[in-house]
Write a structure and sequence with these properties.
mainly beta, four-stranded antiparallel beta sheet
Amino acid sequence: QVQVVESGGGLVQAGGSLRLSCAVSGSTSNINYMAWFRQAPGKEREFVGALRWSGGTTYYADSVKGRFTISRDNAKNTLYLEMNSLKPEDTALYYCAGTLYALAFRSSGLYDYWGQGTQVTVSS
């Protein structure tokens, strides 16, 4: 069993920065990828980025590439999402998730473990 808990959301102005945290606990040895997804009202859940648990290789959606960075603190077993140059369109509920799959890691439907989400609101 794996548990994930997101935190760090809040209200920021456009152009600002925010760091989200995802505390991971449980049997993490079976995790293939950890990822961040987001969902705005009236829109489908969107892939933001992912980190391969073994090795730490990262992947990003084109919409956030160059602005967002995923990292991990091994000592704290915590995944981070550093968000810079935030735009109003980044406003969404952000989720942390883990999957046992090795492929299709950009698909939310294949993730096994989900946090409850943390709200990010970017004002213009």
